[in-house]
Fold these 4 entries.
Entry 1:
Amino acid sequence: MSTLPQFDLIIIGAGVMGSSTAYHAAKRGLKTLLLEQFDLLHYRGSSHGESRTIRATYPEAYYPPMVIESEKLWREAETDAGYNVYFNTEQLDLGPFDSTSLLAVIANCEKQGISHKVMDSKEVHVKFGDKINVPEGWVAVVSENGGVLKPTKAVAMFQTLAVKYGVVVKDKTEVADVAVDEEKGGVVVRSGSGEMFYGKKCVVTAGAWVSKLVRNVSKGVVNLPIQAIETTLFYWRIKEGCEKDFTIGKGFPSFASYGEPYIYGTPAFEFPDLIKVAVHGGRECDPDSRTWRPAAMVVEYLKEWLKLTFGDRVKWEDGPVMSQSCLYSMTPDEDYVIDFLGGRFGEDVVVAGGFSGHGFKMAPVVGRILVDLVVGGKVAAAKLDEKIKWFKIGRFEGNPRGNVKHFEDQVRFREVISRM
C-alpha cells in the first residue's frame, strides 16, 4: 500500500460540503484529495444553480448559531477569493398566527438575540407596500439575517481556494469501495476504474448518494435513513413596470411561507425580470433514476400562492417560465447527519449528509466541523457536542423518526407529491 498516492485526508463528493471541507482542510495544512464521481460543478445533485436562501430564522434552536457562524465564514472565504457569492437582504417569514413552526421561530429569535420584528398584515403593508400581501390571521417575521447565495459560483469558489492551498481534485472518479488499511491504519479508497488512494482519514459528503455509498462500504452494517427527494425550482415573470420592486436593491427580501405547503423564494436576482418561488418538498426517487420533471399539482399550488401574495405584479396565470430540477437528501427529522462512521472504521471515516434541503447555507461551518473531527477525533467531538449532538447516526436506533420536534414538519407535502 506504500506505493499508493498518500493523503492526510480523502474527501468523497465535491458538492458544496465536500468542497468547503477541502478548503478548510488545506488551510489547516492537511494534504487533501477531493474526489467527484461526475464532472465538477455538475447539475445532477444538490449544489448547483443560481440561488439559495440564507436565513437564521429556524424553529430548531440549534441552527441559528450555525447560520450566524456560517455568515462570517462565507465572508472570510469571499475575502480570500476576492469576489462575492453571498448577497445580504432581509428575510421574511410568514404564516398562520397559530403555526407552531413560526411560533418556534419567533421564540428562538427572542431567546438568541436575533434582530427581528413581528408584524401583522397592516404592518407588512406599511413596510413593503403593495409588493407583498399577508392574509388576515397571519403574522410575519422580518429579520436582518437573510439573503441569497450563488450555489455554483460558491462551489467553484471553494474548489478554487482549495486548489490554491494545495488540494488535489479529481472529477469523473466514482468511488467503488473504502477499506480499512490493516497494516498502518487509515483507509484505502478504490475507484470504479481501479485507481486506489491511501488516506489517513476520509470524509464522505456524497449528497443524495451518501446512503448507497455508506451501505456499500460498511457491507450493509450501516443504513442511513436518508432519502433522495427530487424537487423543482420555478421562475416566474414579473409584470412589466414592477421588475425593480422585486430586487435586493429595492429592499425585497428572501422569504418563506409556513402555510401548506411550505413555500420559499428569493428576490429577482439571477435572471432579469424573474423571481424564484418554489415548494420546499418533492417526490422520493433514486438519484440515478429520476423524472427531471415538475409535478403539476405543485404549479397549481404556487399559482394560488402567488396570486394571493403578489397579486398582479407577477404573471402567475401564465405559469412558470423556467424550471430547474434539484435533489434533497432528506432525513426523517429533517436534521443533518454529521458523525463518525464507526464500526471497523472507528474515527477514520466521517460522514456528513442528509442536509434535507436547507444545508447549503451551512457549508462553511459544516466544512470546518468535519475538519475538526478529522483532526481531533472523539476529543474534538466532545468539544463540539452542543453543536453536533443532534446530528449523530445513533439517534435513529430504536427511533426511526430521529429527533423529536414540537412543531410541524416543513416538508409534509412530499407525501402528496410522491403519489402524483
Entry 2:
Amino acid sequence: MERSEIVQSLENKSILITGSTGFLAKLFVEKVLRVQPNVKKLFLLVRADDAISARKRVEDEIISKELFSVLKEKYEESFHSFFWSKVCVVVGDTSLENLGIGDTKLINVLWREIDFIVNSAATTRFNERYDVSLNINTFGARNVMLFAKKCEGLNMFLHISTAYVTQERKGIITEKFFEQDELLIPKIETENELIKRKLKELEDTCASNNIIKICMKELGMKRANKFGWPNVYSFTKAMGELQIAKLRGSLPVIILRPTIILSTCKEPFPGWIEGIRTMDKLILSYAIGEIVSLPACLDAAVDGIPGDMVVNAMLATMMTNCSHPNSMLPIYHVGSSSKNTLRFRLISETSYEYFSMHPFTRKDGKLITVRKPIFFSKMFFCIYMVLRYKLPLQVLLVVATLFSSQILKNQYIKHNQTYNHVMLMAKAYIPYTFMLGRFDDTNTEILRMRMNNEDKAMFSFDPKCINWDQFLMDIHIPGVIKYGLNG
C-alpha cells in the first residue's frame, strides 16, 4: 500500500505559523494534528500582552471551536494534553522587528529548530484602515521574511497571498510574479511616510478616533485606486509579495495565491467557516432584504475554493517543493475558474432558492420574503439607485425639515445609512461581480500530477470534483448561517 509522502514529511518537524487565530491557520493546525500526530511542534504566533493571555486566546479562539470536534472525539479526555504537547504559543506581532518576540532564548530556539514557516497573517477587510493594512499585509510579510532568513535549517517559507494581487480582470491570469515596475507599485517607505504625515495632521487638529479611522480608510482606498487596485486589501498584499521576492535571496520560498476562500467541502466536516467572508456578505445582505439590486454580470466568474482544499494545497506545496528545489519563485493559484467555473448567475439563483425555503425572521417575528434580485450594468445601477432610493430620501429629508418631524428625520437617517452601506458594498464588490478573467493553475496542476495516489486522496485540492449547486445549497450557505453568522 502506498504511503503518504506528505504525512511522512511532517513527522518530527517544527512549524511556525503566523496569523494563527485566523480562519485558514486554524484549518491548517487541525489538519496537521489530525493526519500527523507525530509532528514535533507547532509554534503559534499570537498577539497578546503576555503568555497567559496568549494561551487564553488559543483556548478561546482555537481549541473551543467545533472545528476540533473530530480530534476531540478521537482523543477524548486526553485531547488537551495531546494538543498542548504539540502546540507552543509564542507571544508576538508580525508588524514588529523579530516578530515582536521579547524572549531572547525563545527566539534562538525558533531560529535553531524551525523547519517550516507558514505566513498566513493578514487583514482581509476590503476597506481596512491604510495604516493597519500596510503594517500587517506589507510590513508584516517583510518582517516574517527577515525572521525566516535567520532560521538555520529552514526547509520552506510558505507565504499566503491572494490571487487578486493582479490588476488584470480579463483573459487568462497566469501564475506569474509581477515586478514592481510592471505594476507601478509605490515604495513602502513612501507610503509609510504618507501615512505618518496624515496621522500627524489629524492629531494636530485634535481629530476624534472615529474621524482618524474614516480618514485612514479613505486614504487607503485613494492610494489603492490611484495605482489600479479596487481595494486596500489586494493593494497591500501585492506590496507584501514584492517584499518577499526582494528579500528572499537563496531561501526556499513559495507564494500561494488562493482565490475566494469558502467553507470546508469535506474536512474535518462539511460547512465549517468562521466569520462572514467576501461574497457571503452579499448573500446575507440579500437574505435580510438589504440588497435587492446589484451591479453584476451574471456570467462573471466568482472564483471560489473550499477552505480545506486550500489547506491541502498549502501542505502539498510545502512538502513537495522541498524535494524539488527551484531557483525561480514558485507561484501557485488555488482556485476553480480554470477547471470548474462558478458563475455569479448560480450564486444568485441558489441564494433565491435557499432563502425562499429558509427565510430569515425579522425582529417582530415576521418572515423576510426575498425577491429575485435585479442586476444592472455599473452605470445603470447608479442611475437606478438615485431614482429609486436617493431622490425619495432627499424628499423625505425636506419634508422632515419643513415639519420639524423627528420621527421622519430618524427614518431618513436609518434609510440613508442603509443606502450608503449598499453603495459602499457595491463599489467594493464590482471588481468581483464583473470578473471575466480566469486564474491559470498550471503550476498547481503539475504539483497535483506529481503527488502519489495516497496523497491525492488525503490532500485533495482538485476543483473539478465540486458540484457547485449542491455545495452552495447543502454545505456553504447553511455553514455560513450556522458557523459564520452564529458561530
Entry 3:
Amino acid sequence: MDRLNGSANLMIVSDLDYTMVDHDDPENLALLRFNALWEAYYRHNSLLVFSTGRSPTIYKELRKQKPLLTPDITIMSVGTEITYGESMVPDDGWKQYLDHKWNRDIVVEETAKFPELTSQSETEQRPHKVSFYLEKGKASKVVQALSKCLENRGLDVKIIYSNGIALDVLPQAAGKGRALDFLLQKLKAAGLGPLNTLVCGDSGNDAELFGVPEVYGVMVSNAQEELVEWYAQNARDNAQITHATERCAAGIMQAIGNFTLGPNVSPRDIKDSMLNIKILSPSHEVVMFYLFYERWMRGEIENSEQYIQNLKSIFHSTGNFVHPSGADRPMQQIVDTLPKMFGEKQGLDFRVWIDRVSFAEVDAPNKFTWMHLHQTWLDGSEGKNDARWFI
C-alpha cells in the first residue's frame, strides 16, 4: 500500500475458491484474463484483497497451483486473520480485537460433545477458528444446539455453515464482513480509503461481505444455493448487488462493467494491439508485450517482421533489459532473438502472466519509449541461470 498517495481508486475484495479461481477451468483462462486486466489498469492505484476461508497453509498451496496475483491484503481463515503485502505481515490489532469473549479451549470442549461434527485438518484449526465437517441435513439442529451451549459458557461466538459441508466457530466479532469493515475503517484513517469497493463471492461465508455499507457486490453465476437464497431474502432489491451471468473471475469483470467502476475488457481479449497501440499507459504496455510474447511462442499470431520492427521502434536504442538474475542486455539485442523462437511452445500448455507491475515515467508526452525493463522472480520460481531472458 506504500505505492498509494491517497484514496485507492477501486478495491476488489474477492473470495478465492469458485469465485476468483474456477477449479473447473483447467486452463485458468478467466483467471488469466482478470490478471491481465488488473495489472494493466488497476494495480498502480487500486487495492486487491483476497478474502478466503482457507488457512495460511492451504492458501499458500493454492498459490503454487494457480496463477494468482499477489494481493495487497489477505483476509484468511473466514475473516479471523488479516495480513499485508507479499510477506503477509499480520494485523496485530485485529488479533486483539477478536479476543473479546473468546476462549478457544471452551469451544473445543463443547464441540467435542457433538458426534455429528468431524474435525477438519490441523492446518485449518486457527487461534480464532475451530473448523469441522457436518452433513447438510444435520446442520440446522447442530448449529442451534451448539450456539446455546457456547452462550451458556459465557462466549460470544459466530457459527458459519457453508458449502453444504463446512462449519466454522469464530468469535462474534470475526467473519469476512467484520474483517472488511475493520479494514475499511483502518484505510480511511490512513487516507487510503477506496473510492469504490467491489466484493465478490459464491458461498454462505461470503454473505457477510455484501452487508458491509456502501459496497458493490457480485455473486458469480455459479454461486451456491445457500448464497442465492440469502440474496433472494435479503438483497434482491439492492441495486448495488448483482448476480452475474458469468462464472468466477469472468463474473467479477462483468460486474466491474455493470457498475461502471472502470475498464473491464481484459487485454487478453484484445488482438494485435502490438501493431495498434492506442492506450498511453505504461502498465498496459508491459502487459501487452508479454501477451504478445506468449502468442508469439505459441505460434498464435503471424510470424511477421512487422512485429519485430514495431518493437524496435518503441524500445530505446540504448535501453536495457534486466533479467531476474540481475544480468542485463541491450533491448535491441533481446528483440533480435525473437524470430528464431517463434512457435517454440506451439501445442504446449504455455501461458504467461505477470504480477505487481510498477513503473516510473520520464518526460515523453504523447508517446512511449521503453528505456528500462527489469524483471524479478516470482517467489519460489527462481531459475538456475539466465539462459531464458523472457520466461
Entry 4:
Amino acid sequence: DMALRHYTLDFSLSAAVDSASTVPGLLSIFHEQEMTETVHDTNGHGYLATFVGKNGRLVILRVHSHGLVTIDLQCYEDDNIAQLDNLLNALEKKLKVLLNGNVTRVKRLPALIRGAKVDRYWPTADGRLIEYDIDRVVYEEDSAYQNIKILHSQQFGNILVLNGDVNLAESDLAYTQAIIGGGKENYAGKEVLILGGGDGGILAEVVKQKPKMITMVEISFMGSVIDGCRTHMRKTCGNILDNLKGDCYQILVEDCVPVLKKYVKEGRMFDYVINDLTAVPISTEPEEDSTWEFLRLILDLSIKVLHPAGKYFTQGNSVNLTEALSLYEEQLEKLSCPVDFSKEVVCVPSYLELYPFIISNNFGHGHVCKYKIQVLIN
C-alpha cells in the first residue's frame, strides 16, 4: 500500500504580486531540500514551477495573477513527516516576509491521503468532501444489486456504505428513532411493514414494543446487507437478523415492489409502513425508469396498503439539496391520494449533514383519503 500524502498551503493576497519579487527568495529553501526546479509556460496566467526531490517528493508552486499563491506538496506516505512539516513551515515563514503585509489569509489543510488501501473520504449528499476516521474495512461484497461495505470508524463504530453512500453507523440510533416516529408512536399490537431496512435497526427497535406482526421485505440475503450487518453491525441490530422469523416478525428476502402489488391486490392493510429503501432504486421492475418514478411508485403502493388511521415513514435527502426536496414535494402531489406535510430536524451523528425523513398520517376514509406528511430532517 503506497499511498500519497498531498499537502496544500494557500496564501490569499490583498493585491496581485509579481512572481519576480517572490519566487527567487524561495529557491534557497528548495535547494536546501535538494529539489530541482522546472519552470513552466502558463501562457500569461501567472507563474508555475515544479520541484522534484528525493524519495519522490514533488512541490508545485503557483503564483496566480489574481492574487493567490498556492503550494502543493506530494510525497509517499512513508516519507519523513517531520521533514515535510519543516519544509512547509519554512515556505510559509519566508512567504510571509516576502509578501510583507499583502497576505489576508494563510490556509494549510491536513494532508489528503490519496490511493490508500482504506478509503476515508465519503462525500455528503450535496457533494462536500468528508474525511472519516476510518481505519479498516470489516466487510465488502458486491451483491446482485449494489456494492456493500462496512467500515470501522473510531468514533462512529462500524458504518454501512452502499454504492459509496453512507447509510448508517452503529452510532446512529437517532436515525432509527426518527424513522419510526421519534418515540411518539405505540407499536404494541400493530401490523407493521418495513421496506428495506437490511441493517436490522428498525426491526430491532420496533420488536421491543411487542407489535402484532412486523413484515420486513429486503431484496437479497447472502453476500448482502443482512449478511454483513448481522455479523458486523450488532450494536444496531442485536441478534434480530440471526433468524428470518421470530414471535412477532418475519423477513421476506424479496423485491418489495411485487410484494406491495400483491398486498394491494389481496387488500392487505398495515398500521405502519416504514420505507428504509436506499435512495437509488435497485428494484428489478421495468417501470422504474428513474429515481422519482420509483419513489412515487413506492409511495403510491405504500399508501394503498395503509389503514385509514395508519402512518407512513420514510427518509428524504440532504436539506442542502433544496431542488431535490422541491421535486420530492412534487411527487407527493402526484399520488393517488392528496397529501399534506410538515418538516422537523433530527441530527444523525455519522451523516454530518441534516437529512429528511417523512412521516405521513392517513386521516382519510374510504376512497377519498388525505394524508399528512411530516418531513423529519436528520
